[in-house]
Every structure is written in C-alpha cells, then in structure tokens.
Amino acid sequence: MANVNNLKVALVHDYLKEFGGAERVLLALHEIFPEAPIFTIFSKGRLGKLGRLGKLGEARIIQSWFGKLPFCDRLISPLRFLIPLIWESFNFREYDLVISSASWAITKGFGSRSITSIKDTTGITGRKRMVEICYCHTPPRYLYGYETSKDWQRHWWVRAYAAVVNHFLRIYDFQQAQKVDYFIANSKEVQQRIKKFYRGDSVVINPPVDVGGFRSASRRIGGVGKGDYFLTGGRLERAKNFDLIIKACNQLKIPLKVYGSGSQERSLRSISGKTVEFVGKISDEERQRLMSECRAFIVAAVDEDFGITPVEAMACGKPVIAYRGGGYLETVVEGKTGIFFYPPPSRQGGTSEGRGEPTVESLVEVLKEFDPQKFKPEDCHKQAEKFSKTIFKKKIVEFLDSHRFKTDLH
Questions:
Q1: How far apart, in whole angstroms, are the C-alpha atoms of residue 42 and residue 320?
Q2: H helices within 83-187, ranges in order?
Q3: I need a labelling partner for 123 at 20 to 30 A (CA). Which of 73, 91, 138, 389 fits?
C-alpha cells in the first residue's frame, strides 16, 4: 500500500453490538490497518471474548459519549436526532485518512471539517485535510422508504415523530455525503442508491465472506447433503420475509429448518406447521452443517443490500432459491447456482430488476419444480469464491494504491 504507508488512519463504524455483514467488513479493514483505532457510537459486550470477532477484540475502540449512557443500545433509535451531535464530538484532525463503515447511523462526512495547519522541515506553513473513504453498506434504509427490521410505522405517534426527525436527518445525510471523497458500495444495488440519493459516484467492492471456512466444513461433513429439508435463517426480522417462506413450506408440507432469533420469532413460530422446525441461535459449525446437508437455502428479502447467507450456502456447494431483486441478483447465477422466484409481471415495479411484493404463490411454484440434482456443487463453490475475504482485501488495497491521497492543501 505505497500510497498510504505513511498516513495515519482511523476507522469509523456505526456501532458495535452484534456480528453481522458490516462487522465482517470492519474486521477485514482492521486486519489491513491493525494500528488504526475504531471510532463508534457505542460498543456493547466483551469483544475480546467473542471468537467470531477475532482480532477486532484487540483493536483500540473509542466510543462516543452516547455509549456511556445506560441502555444506549436501546436509546439510539428513538434518540437518533442526536446523531449529528454524536459524530461532531469526535476529533479527526490528527488523521490523514478515515475509512468509514456506514449504514444506519449516517456514519460519513468527517473529512471537510478536519483541516489543520502544518509546517514542513523548511518552515513553510500550509494546510492539511483528512481524506475520507466511505464504505457504504447502504444509505440508511429508514430514511429512504426501504423495509427495516422493526415495524416502527405501526403506531401513529411514532410515524408522526419519525416524519419530523427523519426529514431533517435526510437533509443531514445528504449534506454529509457531499463531504465524502470516495464512496465504495458493497453491491451494484447500493451503488444505484448512492447515485440516486447522494448524486455521487462509487466503485463496487463486495463484502468479505468466510468462503474457505464454509467450504472446508462442507468437505469435512462429506460434501453432498444428506438432509431432505430446505433451510433459511439469520436475524428473524420482518424485512427478511421469513413468514412468506414458512407459509409456502406449510402449503406444500415440505420440511424447513429455520435458524437464528429476532423480534419476529414468536410470530413466525405461531404460523408454522408441523414440517417447520426452529433450531434457534446456533454456532458457526452447526450453521455450516445445516447448510451442507440441506436441499437448498431460501431467501426472500426485498431490496437486499447484498446478502451474505446465500454466498455461504453456495460455499457449502448448495443452490439458493432467492427472491428476484436486490443484491441476490449479483450473487446467485440463475440455473447454475440457484433459481429466482418473483411476483407476477403486472405487480413488478421500482428501480431494481424485479422489485415488487414477493408472493407465497410465486415461491410455491418454484418449490414444486425444484430439483437439487440440476445444480453442481462445484459451480456453487466457484461462484462463492468470488466473494472471499482474500479478494475483498486485495480489492481494497488495489483501490488505495490506485489513488494518490493528497492531504496537503497549501
């Protein structure tokens, strides 16, 4: 990384609460820049004790004043109007390069206010500006009409509060986006959103997936699935449309295993038939086993930003049945590593191909005709390899090396 070897780097992340796709990106960035501190709104839990976070637990983590509040993880959403004040409390003047990992909390726009006077060895005074790269997982979904994990619109007083607060946060989000020097989008879907909402350009670097770990597990287990069940899971939240998957499997009376937990778990259990089994929170090893032995992995989220679980399933040599839309279109190769289901053409719309309301009927039709023997494990393995952590790091380093980061403004 010739262009950044002599630069002082900081990483910025929304908040540290659980280990998901965004945290995988942060972990990979930390591995590239092990000396860079991580600035975040709050950090919950003992990161060093959580095996999946690995070296992230060894990082120097600097949380904001908000992180010192009791129940800060529960308060951040209702008190989101404090986000500008939270980020303003950090000082990045001593850093040459900031890489922000942004999705929910408008984690961007730090560069333009970080200008300091400098004096070189000859005594000539000039100015130095910090450069910012924003790795954008997505513009905040709650600000731009995309489905979110929580059904915050069900109460009128919440809708009224959000209408006011979100209006000003959209303005703030746009203004902060204009201060970013370089955007990296995690998918073409997100790249389109950056163009639409921020009027900005970006390059696409897909997030890292532990492809090697899942493929190794598949080989250990035997490579060829032994189970007769379909599999789905993750964070059991409304935006993922697990209810649709369960209803389709109920209707056909076919076995379905669901892993994970979330706010929708009780509701999902209540609509499940006899062929649906909930296995709860499971270890990575158990998830790898379930993926390796299933007939296919099913995902149904509308406007998925990228979607890591389908790649994990393909790394296990398994095909994916996915809703035709969002990031799934960039990972699943139709007829080769999976198959799409979608609503009738008259109900499709939106900016993304196939965007529309998914239906139980459309999934039922695909499940009726699905034959796992039509898909070769080696094709799934090969497709998954495109999204490995090794490739992610390589592309990030190449991006950094391809830009000359001019911090000297004189």
A1: 35
A2: 83-88, 156-177
A3: 91
Please give the structure tokens belonging to residue 266: 């009780």
Q: What is the pLDDT of residues 2-43, one digit of tens each?
A: 456 678 999 999 999 888 889 999 999 999 999 999 999 999
C-alpha to C-alpha distance for 82 and 395, rounded to whole angstroms: 35
Phi-psi sector, 253: left (phi>0), alpha (psi -120 to 50), beta = left
Of 24, 136, 30, 32, the C-alpha closest to 401 is 32
State the pTM of this model: 0.87
Among all chains, which residue has been given the structure tokens 């001019």?
Answer: 406
Residue length of the chain: 410
CA angle at residue 7 from 6 to 11, to 5 degrees? 140
Q: CB-based burial of residue 138 (10 Å sphere; 0-12 exposed, 13-18 middle, 19+ buried)?
A: buried
User: What secondary structure does DSSP assign to 348-380, as a single string?
Assistant: B-SSSTT-B---HHHHHHHHHH--GGGS-HHHH
Amino acid residing at 159: R
Q: What local confidence, expressed as pLDDT, does residue 155 receive?
A: 64
pLDDT surpasses 50 at 350: no
Place of tokens 């796992």: 372
